[in-house]
Structures are given as C-alpha cells and as structure tokens.
C-alpha cells in the first residue's frame, strides 16, 4: 500500500475540544518527546532503538497538541532501513530503563493494537526528573508505534499525574494510531 504522509493531519479530528494544535517540529523519536534529549542511555542498550527508530528526518510529518488531558504528538516518517523489531528484541525489552541528564525512566513494552499489515508496539514510560533544589517531577508517556510500508508512525501521549485535569482515556492513543494508519493509507 502506498503511504501519503500529508494525510496525517486528518487525525487532528480525533482530539477533544479545548486542544491547541501546531505542526510537529521536534526530533522524530519518542525518546526525545519523553524528555531524554541529551545522549540517552538505556539498559539493556539495544532497547533504545525501539524509542528512537531510524527514520529520514526530512520526511517527518505530524502535529502536536496540548490541552487539559495531556500533550499528544502524532508523527510519521520514512524508515531509514529495516524497522520492524524482531521477537528477540521485544523479549529483551519487556521492561527497560533510560536516563539522560536529570531524567530517569522505566519503560514497559508490549505488543500494540492489531492493525492490518502493520507491526505495532506499545511503550509506557514513567519519567522522573530532578529539578532545582532536588524537587522531583513525574510524568507518564504512552507511545504506540506502527511499522508499515517503509514508514514508522507513532502517537505519544504525555500526561502529568499531578494535573488537576483528568488524563485522556487510556485507549485514546490507540484510537489515534489506528486513525492515523487508516488516513496514511487513504
């Protein structure tokens, strides 16, 4: 099937009211969106590849939105080589850690939702960041990735457990990923 990256914008309709939307301008890697921008280190080391897939950044299309239930990033980019993780990697990375600067995180990985002709993976990340004076902030990032037709598509939902607003529903990111794949395929 042919992928049309510009169609990713159609998935903005999945957002509830009250969200501000902008074009995606960050690095096309979930690990950067989780807050691990400066040379992240993972244990086991090979697991970082799940959260930083090799893509051609010049082909990146997507959007970001923020609102009362969290921050949503929906992205697609052309793969820069074979991307589908093998069963051995997924078995090694059921639970792994990542650290960079003042941030540490624990990631759990599992198979994603069933989407025709796509391999999907879900990564749930609990992030702790130490800020001035030793205060810790916590966030949660749920990322769903679809490997399809020479492209990598992902949806990341970042929520703040201390927010006075309820987070978006647990299935929200999966619904957006399914809609994105459908839109990309036309």
From TrEMBL:
<dbReference type="Pfam" id="PF18702">
    <property type="entry name" value="DUF5642"/>
</dbReference>
<feature type="domain" description="DUF5642">
    <location>
        <begin position="5"/>
        <end position="185"/>
    </location>
</feature>
<protein>
    <recommendedName>
        <fullName>DUF5642 domain-containing protein</fullName>
    </recommendedName>
</protein>
<dbReference type="InterPro" id="IPR041313">
    <property type="entry name" value="DUF5642"/>
</dbReference>
